[in-house]
Each structure stands twice: as C-alpha cells, then as structure tokens.
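Each lists chain and fold; for instance:
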Amino acid sequence: MPEANAHLLKRWFEEVWNQSREAAIDELAAPNMVAHGLLDANGKPIDRIDKFKVFWRQFRDAFPDMHIEVNEALADGDKQVVRCTVRATHTGGGLGFAATNKPIMFTGTVIARIQDGRMVEAWDNWDFLGLYQQLGLTPAAAV
C-alpha cells in the first residue's frame, strides 16, 4: 500500500486536472474527502466530493488548457506531499468573471492523507493571490 500511496497524487494531477477526467475524481477520492484550503463559490469549505466536483468544473471552465506539473513528490506512510506548478490561460468565465485571456503561472503544495487507496483529506496551499494578481483582479504587491 505505501507504494500505491506514493503515486496517488501524481495520478490525481495527471488524470483529474491535466486530462480533465472527471471520473478519476471518484476513483481517487473518498466521497467524504475534505479539501482544506479550498472554498466553494459561497466561501464554504469543500468537505465532500460533490462540492469538489463543482469547484473542479468551475476551475476547468476558467482554465480549459490548464496543465499542472508535479515538481516533487514525497510519501511517508499514509501521507503524500507534492509541490506543483500550474500553467494555463484564462479563457472561460467559470470563476464568476469574464475571461481575461491572460496566461497565468502559479505554484502550490498539497499534502494528502490516503486511506484504502483513496484521498480522504488534503491540505491545499496554492498561490491564489499571485493568480488573481496576474489576472489583474488585485493590486500588485508593493515592493
């Protein structure tokens, strides 16, 4: 099982995000998966797979060409951590505002707890501020 845990998040980012395969969400995540650090459109925590699917559809609509590169992956027992780089173009309105057609790049780190071959809990830490700054939705950070 530890070997399978070591590859689950790599498979998650490749199949769920890069290949846009929604069925992989059900294969790789438990129905009651909690995604700490991700919020739905109402600012509520994502604490079930059906809520994650709504988040995923909105993000995929906003960035249909999204590609997530897993830069590093480490596993220890039932936990795995990955450091990723996201590249995409904002061509859809899935986030609730018009497409800017701007290219974006941001990074993030995810720690996941895996049980019975599925993700049951994840701690997401993404540079969403940097993402929104690249889209021109927030002022640039003062230097």
